[in-house]
Write a structure and sequence with these properties.
1 helix, elongated, 5-stranded mixed beta barrel, Type Iii Antifreeze Protein Isoform Hplc 12, 227 residues, 37% strand, single chain
Length: 227
């Protein structure tokens, strides 16, 4: 009889323990999903929200109502974010769950070691992902605008390429000068007197008139000037 009672007790105890574990796991998953839903990211980004494991020793009861989740503080998503979790049952419970946010963004990088002076092409370029906190405006996500540019220094494999490491227009290159006014365009040839990356203002000499002008680098081998 005593043995039978023990078996019944153990049979009841196992599902209770399993449910407790499921409760903590479910909270962790809900918190991760909630934070992911609050992050504004580009479709090409890789986003992770890793919630801390909820301590099973808290013995939290399964919440019969939907959990109330809020970002602690101002509500701003940071690299380390804390979520306020409340079970509105009576009695309910309340806890804070830390979450680590990781957002990786695609950038153009060297696919192979690139020597100084090498012309960039689809063969020596690739796309890699870096932490968004390391991203700066000097990097690019568009491989097409770098093809035909030249490296100004040696680049390592998978090293993100910064605009200051290349020249889209290099000194002494022959460039196309495009002069624009309204809907009209005038094109002529020039010689670059400086290295320049995209959107840099450089000095260019008009080959026909020998006049030196300032123009903005707009593409590989191309500069623009307003009339």
């Amino acid at each position: 009889m005593i043995r039978l009672i023990k078996l019944i007790y153990l049979a009841l105890l196992v599902p209770i323990m399993a449910n407790a574990g499921d409760t903590e796991t479910d909270i962790q998953q809900q918190v991760s999903d909630y934070v992911l839903s609050q992050i504004q990211a580009e479709p090409s980004d890789k986003v992770e929200a890793i919630a801390n494991t909820v301590d099973q020793r808290l013995n939290l009861a399964a919440c019969q109502q939907s959990l109330i989740l809020n970002i602690k503080g101002s509500g701003e998503i940071r690299r380390n974010t804390t979520v306020d979790v409340t079970c509105p049952d009576t009695p309910g419970w309340h806890l804070f769950v830390p979450v680590k946010i990781r957002i990786q963004k695609p950038v153009v990088a060297a696919a192979t070691p690139i020597a100084k002076g090498t012309v960039l092409s689809a063969d020596n370029l690739t796309v890699t992902y870096i932490d968004s906190f390391l991203l700066n405006g000097n990097m690019t996500t568009d491989m097409a605008i770098l093809i035909g540019a030249r490296s100004k220094r040696e680049l390592k494999t998978n090293q993100p390429i910064r605009q200051d490491q290349i020249c889209v227009v290099c000194r002494d290159d022959t460039v196309e000068i495009i002069a624009e006014k309204g809907g009209m365009q005038i094109k002529t040839s020039g010689r670059a007197l400086q290295d320049g990356s995209l959107h840099d203002m450089i000095r260019v000499q008009n080959i026909r008139s020998q006049r030196i002008i300032s123009a903005v680098v707009s593409a590989v081998g191309q500069v623009k000037v307003e009339m």
